[in-house]
Amino acid sequence: MADQPQSFPALLHTVLSDAASGSAPELEAIVSFQDHGRAFRIHNQELFCDTVLPLLSLEPMEWDDFLANLARFGFHRLTNAGPDQGAFYHELFLRSQPQLVVGIVRDDELQIDELDCPGPDFSTMPAMARVVRARDPPSIRLMTAESRMIAGPVVGAPTLPFGHATLYGLLRDIIPNNPRLVEDEEEEDIMEDVVPDVDGI
């Protein structure tokens, strides 16, 4: 059975994650997540149209088509004055949380004139974990694991080509006695001891 093609939001998240992880550094000057990881900004519209849009669709896509697609998938362009003005966000489109994009559904009733709106004040929220790079030293990977615990656990994250590491995977690597070799039930007990209860955070 052939793999289902990735959705527009999933492809866009892959592009942004590739830029953030360093696997496609040329993209970071074109499009990137904001520092908090809850919105993304297009830094160079012309290069974005020439370089990124062909990656998001098999059909030719123009800038207005891209904006219309964002609107149909429930994204918004932030109009608040401040560092996020002009950035795009969706509550399920978060840095280092690619598994959430499956919840972003297309609604053809949504129109491009609904794209612009004042959004939340992301400065009052915890920053999302940054994308882990394979070459990061262990101390950076541990810091990322801690920030993931603050933001909430990653549940059922898919294996992605750009090397995302889930909270589970990060913690599994730092737990003594190599839990990859223990029985499933024993591994669950170890993870319960290490991962705090983050419900309600």
UniProtKB/TrEMBL annotation:
<dbReference type="GO" id="GO:0003700">
    <property type="term" value="F:DNA-binding transcription factor activity"/>
</dbReference>
<keyword id="KW-0539">Nucleus</keyword>
<keyword id="KW-0238">DNA-binding</keyword>
<feature type="domain" description="HSF-type DNA-binding">
    <location>
        <begin position="8"/>
        <end position="106"/>
    </location>
</feature>
<dbReference type="InterPro" id="IPR036388">
    <property type="entry name" value="WH-like_DNA-bd_sf"/>
</dbReference>
<protein>
    <submittedName>
        <fullName>Transcription factor</fullName>
    </submittedName>
</protein>
<dbReference type="GO" id="GO:0043565">
    <property type="term" value="F:sequence-specific DNA binding"/>
</dbReference>
<dbReference type="InterPro" id="IPR000232">
    <property type="entry name" value="HSF_DNA-bd"/>
</dbReference>
<dbReference type="Pfam" id="PF00447">
    <property type="entry name" value="HSF_DNA-bind"/>
</dbReference>
<dbReference type="InterPro" id="IPR036390">
    <property type="entry name" value="WH_DNA-bd_sf"/>
</dbReference>
<dbReference type="GO" id="GO:0005634">
    <property type="term" value="C:nucleus"/>
</dbReference>
